[in-house]
Structures are given as structure tokens and as C-alpha cells.
Amino acid sequence: MAIDIDCLDDTDKYGGFSQKEVDSRGRLDLKFVDAQVRAASTRVKSSGVLSLLARWHEEDNPMPGAGGRPRIIDDHAILVGLMLLAQEHSPLFMRNLSLLFQFRLTPESRTLLGLPTPGEERSDVRKESQRWEKNTNNAYHRFAALMDPYPMKRYWSLTFTQVQEVLDAHDEQRAVHMKKRLDTFTNALLLMTFNEQPRRIRRASKKIDLSLDQTFIAPANKKGYSKKTLAERVQAEAAGFEFSPRSGPVDPFAGFYAKNDDDARHDYVPGNPGHDEPRQGLPRQEHRTRLGLHGQYIGPR
Q1: 3-state helix, strand, coil in the chain (%, to 5)
Q2: Which residues of the chain have pLDDT under 50?
Q3: What pLDDT shows up at residue 272?
Q4: Domain positions in the chain
Q5: CA nearest 152: which of 136, 176, 168?
Q6: Phi and psi for 291 in degrees, rounded to 5?
Q7: Counting beta carbons within 10 angstroms of the beta carbon of residue 44, is it exposed (0 to 12), middle (13 to 18) or buried (19 or more)?
């Protein structure tokens, strides 16, 4: 006789696991408490970046559209969600952000961020997750497009001819304008972080002294091109020659990346953080020359 699995409880279906644990696919996705969300929201608002984004959106879109479905996720929610992920040291992936919006917020936090309540029908779990992921991805790209100096599609590999087309279509004046926006946005968040410090720290110096993390982050796409051979390869493709397909996306504007050789940075190796912390009383340049390969101090005290 057939058994209706929906009539079984969690113990019969999943043994010692709960249905929530199975749906999470092994991720321990705990809900953020309301105080954490309120604090992140307050910091985002106090930085002034929301007014900057609104002004830039009006500058780039002076004519209102013909209408359509309203946005489900706005810039405020995106920035708060990214800040929450950063605070728990989670990768800032769009899927992680969409899962946060879908499962990890209380009803009060959803109201604060203007997010709808996700559907709970078991038959639509997959479609509901896809809907949240797509809406989150679209909301982030709307936000990032306001200050992206190098707008291009980075989702697939490019032939050498396509790389040349991207380079030819690049607007240098627009890149300078967007870089200024990006610097303004970043500085606003840095200033907010400084203003969040205790008064005794903020008044310790007449100048703002910031120490930023210098850990090397390798680019996701290492399939680049060489400026020396690009024209030759474009001509070869025009003549009908087909180069071997290159897996992974190609970003023509990505810079050089460090290689794991003798003269590379030691913190490039995954899992090996940088240890070049300045020692008290040593100038920065002198300090760098007295550190060994793995950060051990090899000079006189």
C-alpha cells in the first residue's frame, strides 16, 4: 500500500534530522535578532549613502519609466543584508544574501527592510527560492550599476575578438565619473565606521588614521589576455582560426594577479594570512624588511 509522505512526521521522514535542517542542505542558517538588523540599518542610514544612490539614480534616469511592477528589494535592504553577512564572516554571495532575505529575518526585521513574507507552500519551495535569488541579484546589480566604472557582462567566456570589442566600446570619461562615485560611496561608509568609534578614539588625533586589511584577494577570473598578442589573435580569428575554448568568465579590465612563486606575496596562498603587523617603534619600511617569509621577526628588537 502506498504511503503519503506528507502525512509522516519529521522523525519518520528524516530520522534524527528536522525538515528545516534538510531544506537548509547542511547550512546552519540562524535568524538574525532584531537588534542586529536595527543596528545595521541605522549605520547604513547614518552614512548617507542612500541619499547618494537616490541622487545618482535620478541623474542617470531623468525621465520616469512607463511603470511596471514595483521593486521588491531596495538599496537599503541590500546594504543591510551585506553588512549582516560581513559581520558573521560569510561570503558575500548573492545566494547567501537571498537566503538571508528569505529565511533569516524575523517579521519585525522584514517590516524594517520593506521585504515581503516568503511563501511557505511546500510544493513551491524551489520556485520561491529561485524567485528570491533572482530578485536579490537584480536589486544588487541595479545598485552596483550606479557606480561601476567598467560595465560589461561577466557571466561567460569571451573570444579575443569580443575582448577587443569590449575595449573599443569602453568610455574613459564615464569610467572616471563612476570612479568618483565609487570613491564617494566608499568614503561615506569609512567615515560612518570612524564616527561609530568611542569618543576617546575619535579625539585621539586631529587626523583620521585608518588601517585597512591588505590581504590579497585573487580575482575570480584568471582567463585574461595579453596586450602584446591581442591584435594578432583577433586577426587569426577573423581569418577563421578557432582557439581552444577558455573556461570561465573573462574580464578585460581585471588587473594582474600574483602568482605563487618566489617573489609573490606570501598571503596569496589560500589559508595563509598576512602577518606583517607593524612593530612598535619601527618605521613601516624598516618593519617590512625585517619580516621573514611567514611573518616571523628576524631583525633586532
Answers
A1: 50, 0, 50
A2: 1-8, 263, 274-301
A3: 55
A4: 26-63+70-147, 155-203+225-241, 260-301
A5: 168
A6: -110, 135
A7: buried
